[in-house]
Amino acid sequence: MSCLVCETDAHGQHFGIRCCRACAAFFRRTLTMNLRYKCRFDRKCEVSFNKRYSCRCCRYEKCVRVGMRKDMVQNKSEAEKDSSGNETDSIGHSPHSSLESYTYRPPSFDKQIQNPDPPPLLMNGNFVQEVSSEAYQPNGDLHQQPNFPFHRTVIEEVGRAVMPAPQQQQHMQMQPHIPSQFDYHYTDLLSTDEHNMPSSSTQHYNNVVPQPEYNNQDSGNPNMFAMAAQQATQDLHVNVQNVLTPSIDNLFGQPPDTFCQLPDIPLTLCQQALLAYREHNKQWPDQDKMIENVPLDMENFMRNHYIEIEHIARFCMSIRVFAQLPKDQKWIIFKHFWTRFYELDRCFATCQRLGYNLSDERGLTLNGQIINFGISVVKLENISDMDATQVKNFLKGSMDKFRLIFINPFKKLQPTEYELMYMMMSIMWSVSNLPGITDATRDMSEKVELRLAEDLHTYYAEQYDNNNPNYAGRITRLSSIASAVDEITERKREDSQVSKTFNIFKNDFFFSDLTDFPV
């Protein structure tokens, strides 16, 4: 017996018709999450065994046309009230659900749904996520994204790092959730076949003790933040030792659910990273706020660098597999990862705003300033006794190599956001040879790498609707760019050692205390 919707093998009666679990899950998810789809063509797309994923809009319309009944779909609250405690096969999830096809549900959503008044933090009380029928749209916007506790301004960020936390926060943070036995069996890392099999490991997240909600609202007085920022930027090395390191250490000690507030439908690792990155990407300025043809203030440049590192730590904690690691393993991976993330993030943000012209050597800073290697600088005396020409001569070799092996290949390839996440996640978990990595973390990283390969294959298969010109070439170029980032990091290690030996920079310009190449 075949499914009346997609013509594959059916698995029984669901919502009034004979269909497979995948179509039943798709129909249920569409209704319970109130999703709306748009067809790219004229609403006449083929929905069959080979093309059931090509257009969500037409797939949903066919579900209705062949007789699926909306009144038979239970919402989540009704399902939880089922006295049997069991739900039908119709709730099966697809591990490859596209990131664009969900609506985020905050922890308090089930309470709010009982209240006819719209929540104060949502525009017009609208939970509907308008989506396209395209399988993946890595460069599309999420209109309503989770409200992760990212800070919005440099002053607030630096001020928060040096100002004491509110007493209520301090009290809560003294009692982080520590599982009695660390569990490396993550549902995120299961293959497609494993995802459809019942497993005791899926209980890992269901048995976590509920944690108190952290109040991440900004507090305090802007003048206090300004004074704190001034104090925090007087000496870079002292900042890293006494301010930034403890701040990140505190982040790494918080319960995983503090940052990993993911929606009900399962997301792959790359989709989790996409969600976290789009929130992280908000720190970059819009095009209408960029400035050019002004001197580069080295003090502000270094301060922004200082801020970005903590933002990267928050990104890492938004990846569930990372957030559940022991703190010592988090630190090892973070020191290896953040410099590489920094280069990829800055290059992608620059290309998004300034384009992919190979002859354009401009870059973008966090405060929106457009810079190039020949730009005039001010306040250089705060970080070096050399003049601008001498410093540029010292860094010129690294910059030339940077453009040759990384910037130019990146601009030629023009990777999508999803491909960017693949590179970032591959780099994050290429940790097998790092000193201090435990066998358990090493085994888990190998599972991550296998899962990433499957995620990328699925992405290309759905992106090109199985009519892809050879995408193996793109994978090779992605790997080449990731390797180039490693080469750049190695060159920075050499520059850091030279700087330390000859006192080129007064302070730790390369943040070696927070990298895996301390000198």
CATH architecture of the largest domain: Orthogonal Bundle
Give the rounded overall mean pLDDT: 71
**Strand neighbour order, sheet with most strands:** 1-2
- The CATH class assignment of the largest domain is Mainly Alpha
Cα-atom Rg, whole angstroms? 25 Å
Count of strand segments: 8
Count of all domains: 2
Looking at this protein, list some descriptive labels.
519 residues, mainly alpha, Erythroid Transcription Factor GATA-1, Chain A, Retinoid X Receptor, two-stranded antiparallel ribbon, two-stranded parallel sheet, elongated
Report on the structure:
The chain is mostly helical and 519 residues long. It folds into two domains: 1-76, Erythroid Transcription Factor GATA-1, subunit A (Erythroid Transcription Factor GATA-1, Chain A), CATH 3.30.50.10; 191-197 and 217-514, Retinoid X Receptor (Orthogonal Bundle). 46% of the residues lie in helices and 3% in strands. The protein contains 17 helices and eight strands. It has helices spanning 21-32, 56-65, 76-80, 109-112, 154-162, 167-173, 192-195, 222-232, 236-252, 269-280, 298-317, 320-323, 327-354, 388-413, 417-428, 439-463, 472-502, and strands at 13-14, 17-18, 36-38, 130-132, 296-297, 363-364, 370-371, 377-378. It has a two-stranded antiparallel ribbon with strand order 1-2. Strands 3-4 form a two-stranded parallel ribbon. The protein has a two-stranded parallel ribbon with strand order 5-8. The model is unreliable at 79-186, 192-222 and 224-228 (pLDDT under 50). It holds the Pfam family Hormone_recep. One of its GO terms (cellular component) is nucleus. Residues 74-84 have a biased composition (Basic and acidic residues). Its main location: nucleus.
